[in-house]
Amino acid sequence: MSTATTASVSTHILDTSVGRPAEAVAVQLSARTGRDAGWQTLGGSATDADGRCKDLPALPEGTTHVRLDFAVEPYFEKKQADAQQDAPANRDSGAVFFPEVAITFAVQPGEHYHVPLLLNPFGYSVYRGS
Length: 130
Description:
Layout: E1 8-15, E2 20-21, E3 26-32, E4 40-46, E5 52-53, E6 65-71, H1 73-83, E7 101-106, E8 112-120, E9 123-126
Parallel strand pairs: 1-8
Antiparallel strand pairs: 1-2, 1-5, 3-4, 3-6, 6-7, 8-9
């Protein structure tokens, strides 16, 4: 819930390689109160079956920048293990190319920021949603 002195954040992840939400991805939320201030880890969550984090911590008053850290390596490792017997030989070593994704963005008091992550094994995209 946003107020006049704080911003709020939500996110979700869609795995574009399969056209489905990415479930059980750990997401860490950090904030700072100016570009020269240190990061304060506020806590985290994991995506649900719909790829959403519905319980991210509230941002403290005075937050100007937010960072979302997505731990995507365990998600892709599990996905690779589940699909290994059905997949043709892969030319890659099996290592996850992007083991984690960190998204940093500026916020204004009273605004809500929904930040979707579109993810696949070889790239990602992020945008400010609604």
